[in-house]
Design brief:
4 copies of one chain form a homotetramer. Chain A is an all-alpha fold. Helices cover 76% and strands 0% of the residues of chain A. Chain A is globular and about 45 Å long. Chains B and C meet through helix 4 and helix 5 of B and helix 4 and helix 5 of C.
Chain lengths: 207, 207, 207, 207
């Protein structure tokens, strides 16, 4: 699978995404990050962790199972506490609220992929798309604000460690044999859900 | 599970749904049904059939497996040809186009439910919600137009046979033991996706 | 996928299978078919139907979904009644008894394949192996006994219709792209479970 | 769920299991542990890890997801190296060989449970049964041999840490609402597969 091509074919999405208007707003007003805390907490807790577990459970033992298990473990033990910490720092975000339809849709899309398609084209491509997008979004923000919450977040998702993790995902996808057209479809749909997620944060409350 | 309560708790959704502004538009201009043909074709072909198969594959053999298998078979052999027929009658709708994000989201939500939750609260409640909503929507339209396509569609989804099928789904849900609160959550989320589906048909093209 | 090669590589299994000593015994004493009625009823009702539904739910809509749905529907409406009929003709077999470990294992193996591997190598190859083996077993028996129950059964599983179904499965597997080695592994394991199933019918009661 | 009752109802299995004849043989001749190394390595690598991942991916985020993820992570990082170490200490066991039908059956049974039933009755009960049995088997062996490999193994699976893990699984099952009869069926079937696994180690080579 040619990941450069997957990324290149979605320039129209990246143009709307890096930077996303919501990120621009957040730089000017870090308090506007509050809906993101709720939505991304649900995305990770209720969605991404399950998605990665489902993916790992279908990975060949000799293949990427250990890598995916290790990554899920890190997500659960390192990223989930970040949301709790940032929620506190922003004066308390009610994490018990229902997530938006955009978040529920994105989470459903990823988890359906992980169980319906085979390991290759399904989750692996989508996981790379999702994490690559996250890396781009937060790298853009890096250095643009001295607000401790934004520094905290961008230093996590644009760190060397996170970058290496995204590169490892890219290698996993690169090493896969299969139909580039199917992979391109999954990649693009994931990008569109990522964009929908950020659009919904910027728009009126959709709860 | 108390289905009257499930329906009663979602009066706010039904108020926006029966009739939905898109249905009102369709009565005045049957040609505006064209995006619906594309989206519902994908919903049924790429989504509902898989969802019902996944649900049936997890149903106890002594329980609802036969009913769900029979219903899926009817969906595939009776409803799919309706979309092809109506597409022709409306001058040809390109069914090869990608469905909207609303459709992909709804389909993902249902299929994720079918594999992630247990049989009871997952798909069964969602399937009832979805079909009940469809029955209400098309029953409203019934008799409001003499346009052959609308007569064809409303006569199918408000037929005695379809009504009996929806009642059978209701009995299945009624007969289930379990936590009403979880069921209510699934029912409400399904209603919101149904509404999102119709809203997207009425809005600007979201492809 | 080269199905001739898949079949050819398992000559050692077929040598023990066509005819299987249990089948030889059944020709001499049709009453010894009673444990088979129980086990195969459970295999079909509790196992093969779910397996095929799970497989169909993951098939591409443009691909084999309709064929698999149609085949499952026929299995449920045509084969299940055969077991009830034969149970009656053999003086009543208690179909409520627990199936043997061999049957539970075989059913688990198939269903796990259907959800864990991708569509191609998982269920499709296994389904072909299973049905091909059944066709061989009953074709051997065909004409060897005038006992009405054996005539009934062999006329079903060695009929032209069943033969065409098995050929259609073969074409499905032939048309698949993918790693022959993985397919060979799945094919062989399915053959071994098929053999285990027949061995268990011939051996001491394993309940 | 009453776990004392689940255990008590299977006294006939435990009587054949603690001690299992294979364990008695191993105490007298530690080298006879070699087939176990192969089979249990496959059971854990190809089976139990996937099973627990699939289970975790369906656990409610507020519930047992973190516990199951943590346990799977420990299994992969702590237990898998034990097999490699013991294989070396026993003069090298070819871990690339195919596992026996008993192992493939057990692994299939667990993984099918994890995806086919709901979280409660499916995997959770089976996981408890499996780990409880393992704890009993190795606790029996503890102190019966000074052979370093047996000391290594029994000190792991009868350690305080492993005991606490099994107790935590028991609490998880105890806290579950649901039909005791279904749970009893799953528990018993798991016990039978555990017994089959040990029987196969003691018998003639079934490869």
């Amino acid at each position: 699978m040619d990941t450069e091509r997957l990324i290149g074919e979605n320039r129209d999405v990246w143009a709307r995404f890096v930077p996303h208007p919501y990120m621009v707003k957040v730089v000017g007003d870090p308090g506007s990050l509050r809906p993101w805390v709720l939505e991304d907490y649900h995305f990770v807790r209720g969605g991404a962790i399950r998605f990665m577990l489902a993916l790992a459970s279908r990975a060949p033992p000799e293949g990427h199972l250990d890598f995916l298990l290790e990554s899920t473990h890190r997500l659960a033990t390192m990223e989930v506490p970040i949301f709790l910490e940032v929620s506190r720092d922003l004066g308390g975000v009610d994490l018990g609220r229902e997530p938006s339809m955009a978040t529920v849709s994105y989470v459903s899309f990823l988890n359906h992929l992980a169980t319906s398609m085979d390991f290759v084209y399904g989750g692996a491509v989508a996981l790379f798309a999702e994490e690559w997008a996250y890396y781009q979004a937060w790298k853009w923000l890096s250095g643009k604000s001295q607000h401790p919450v934004l520094v905290r977040l961008s230093s996590h998702w644009s760190s060397r460690e996170f970058c290496e993790y995204v590169e490892r995902l890219r290698e996993m996808v690169e090493g896969m044999q299969g139909d580039q057209k199917t992979a391109a479809g999954v990649f693009r749909e994931t990008c569109r859900f990522e964009l929908l997620f950020w659009d919904s944060l910027n728009g009126p409350d959709t709860h």
